[in-house]
Amino acid sequence: MHRIKAVVASPVAFSVLAGVVIGALFLVGTGADPVAAYEAVITGSLGADGIGSTLTTLTSVLGLALALAVPLRAGLINLGGDGQLVLGGMAAAVTGLYSPLPAPLTVVLSLLAGMAAGAGYAALAAVCENRFGVPLLVSSLLLSYPAASFASYLARYPLKEPGSSLPQTRQLPDGVALATFGSSTVTVGLLLVVVAAAAYWFTDRRTAFGYEMRMTGLNARFSAYAGVERKGLTLRLMAVSGALAGLVGAIGVLSFPYRFLDGSLTASGYTWTGLTAALLAAASPVGTVLASFFFAVLQVGGLSMERTTEVPRELTQVLQAIVIVFLAARLRFPQWWFNRRKEAV
Amino acid sequence: MFFDSDLLMSALRALTPILLAALGGAVCERAGVFNIGLEGMMLMGCFTAVATSWFTGSPWLGVLAAALASAAYSLILAVGAVTLRGDAVVLGIALNLLAVGLTSFLLRTVFGVQGTFDDPSLAGLPLVGGFSPLAYLAWASVGVAALMLSRHVWGLRLRGVGEAPDAAATLGVSPVKYQYAAVLVSGVLCGLAGAQLALGNVTLFSENMTAGRGWIAVVAVMLGRALPFGVLLAALLFGVAEAAGFRLQGLGLPQQATDAAPYVVTLGALFLTTARRRRRTPATSTTADPTPTGAVS
Fold this sequence. Notes:
The complex is a heterodimer. Chain A is mostly helical. Chain A has helices spanning about 1-10, 10-30, 35-45, 50-75, 80-100, 105-130, 135-155, 190-205, 210-220, 220-225, 230-255, 270-280, 285-310, 315-330, 335-345. Chain A has a domain at about 55-285. Helix content of chain A is about 75%, strand content about 0%. The mean pLDDT of chain A is about 90. Chain B has a single domain (about 5-115, about 125-280), classed as ABC transporter involved in vitamin B12 uptake, BtuC, CATH 1.10.3470.10. Chain B has helices at about 5-30, 40-55, 60-85, 90-110, 135-150, 155-165, 165-170, 175-200, 215-225, 230-250, 255-280, and strands spanning about 115, 205. The termini of chain B are far apart. Chain B has a two-stranded antiparallel ribbon with strand order 1-2. Chain B is built from eleven helices and two strands, in the order H-H-H-H-E-H-H-H-H-E-H-H-H. In chain B, about 70% of the residues lie in helices and about 0% in strands. Chain B is an all-alpha fold. In chain B, helix 2 (about 40-55) packs parallel to helix 4 (about 90-110) and helix 6 packs across helix 8. At the A-B interface, helix 7, helix 12 and helix 14 of A face helix 3, helix 4, helix 9 and helix 11 of B.
C-alpha cells in the first residue's frame, strides 16, 4: 500500500497524467472527441490488429531505451543513438551481403557486426570526452551526423542496388533474416532485446559494476572518492550503449525489407522515444521496460487515432515531450492533496 | 579561385542563424543557466515566422511573432530550471523534442501538409546590400552583447549571478530575475534565428528544418567561451565550413561528405581549443567537472 502511494505521489505519475490531460486539451482544440481518440489509441495498439505492430515497435524502442538507459544510470547522456543505430544497421547489411558463411551463422555474425560497429562508434564519443575534454553530450551528438551521412553515402553510391531508384542496398541473401513469430512482423529480435533488458536488470542489481554505475549516477564525486575510475566507466558504458543501439540497427536490417534503406532506421525517431522512455524511468531496468511499452503503445495507437479522429499522429510526439518537460521540472502532486484525502478517509 | 568573395558572402549568410542562437546561449551561460534548448526554440521561431508571414503577408510581422513565440516558449526552461530547479539538460532535450512534435503537428493541422510547406506567395525577408536585415542585426548584437556584458551594470550583475548566485543575492541582486531575463533574451534571439532561417536563408518551413544548427550554436558557445566575439569567431568557422561544403559539392564531391563537414570541423575545433586549454592548466582540472553537463538528478 505504501509503495502504491509512493508511485502515485511520484513525479512520474504526475507527468504522465499531465501529458494525457494536455493531450486531451489539444484534441478538444482540434475539434476531436478526446475519449474516442484515447480509446482508438488503446484498441489500435493492444487489439488483435495492432498488437503485432506494437511488439515490433517495442523491439526498437526498448532496445534504444536500454541503450540510452545504461549510460544514464551513471548520469551520462548519449545523444548519438541515431548515428550508432545507423552504423550498426550498415555493418549488419554489409556482413549479411558479403559473408561467405551459411545463412544462420551469417545472421549471428551480422548481429555481432552491428553491435561492434555501434559500440566502436559510441566508444569514440567517450574517447572525445576522456582524452580531449569535449563533453559527452556534445561529442556523441556531433559524431551522429557524419555517421548518418557516411551510411547514406554507402547506400547511395558504392553499395546501391543496381537499377533501383531508392537509396538502398541489395536485399540480403535468402535465409539471412531473423525468424518471425508465425505470420506476424514480430521477430526474434524482440527476444534479444528482452534478454538485454534482463541482463541490464541483473547487472544493475547484482554486480559490482552495476553498483559503481548507480553510485556514479547518484553522486559522481562520492564514487570517484570511493575509487571508481570515471574514464574507464564512461568508456565501458558508452560501448555497451552503442552496442545496444547497433543491435537495434542490425535487427532492423535483418527484418523486413531485409536491406539497408537510407533513412528508414531513423525515420520513426525511435532514438528520441527511447531517450524519453529512459528519462521517464530514471534508467531503472524495470521502469525502462514499462516506459518503453507505454511509448510503443502511444506510437502505434497514434496511427489508429489518426484514422478514427483525423487528428495527426504527431500529437503522440507532443505528448511524449510534455511528459518529459513536467518530469524534468520535477512537478508532482502537492503534498496537501494526499493529506486531505487521508483526512477524508 | 576557391576562397573568393562569393564564398565569404555565402559563409556570412550561413552564419547568421547560428550566431543569433549562439549569442542567446552565451547570455544564458553567463547567467549560469545551461541552455541546450536552442534548437527547439529556433524551430518554434521558424514555424511561427512562416505561419505569421503567410497569414498576414508581412515577413516583418513574421519576425516579430517568431521572437515573441520563442520567448514565450523559452519560459518553459526558465520556470523549470530557475524556479523549480529542475535539470536544465533534460529540460533542454525535452524542449527540442517538444518543438519537433509541436511544429509537425501544427504543420498538419494549420497547413494540412506533411513534411514541407512551400508556397511561391509566401513572403520572405528582403535583401539589403546582399544580406537579410537580420544579418546586420546579428552583427550589431555581437557588439551590443559584448558591451552590455563587460561594461553595463546589467551585464556585470548578470555575470555575478552566473558566477556566484549567493553572493549576488547577498548584495541585493535577484538571481531569479537575471536568469529569467537571460533565458528570455535567448528565446528572442533564437526566434530571430528561426525567422532568418525560414524567411531569409530559404522561404519555407519543413519538419525539423533547424537540422542541428541549435546544437552547433551550443558548441559555438563552448568554443567561444561564452564571449560574444568568441562566439562570433566560432559561428564564422561553422559558416565557412558550410559554405565551403556547398562549393565542394559543385566540384563533384558527394553531398553526404559536404553535409558532414560542419560537424566534423566543429568537433575538430573543440579538440584543438580544449587541448590547448588543458596544456595551459595542467593537472589542476582533473577532478573538477569541466562543464555543467554532468549528472541527471
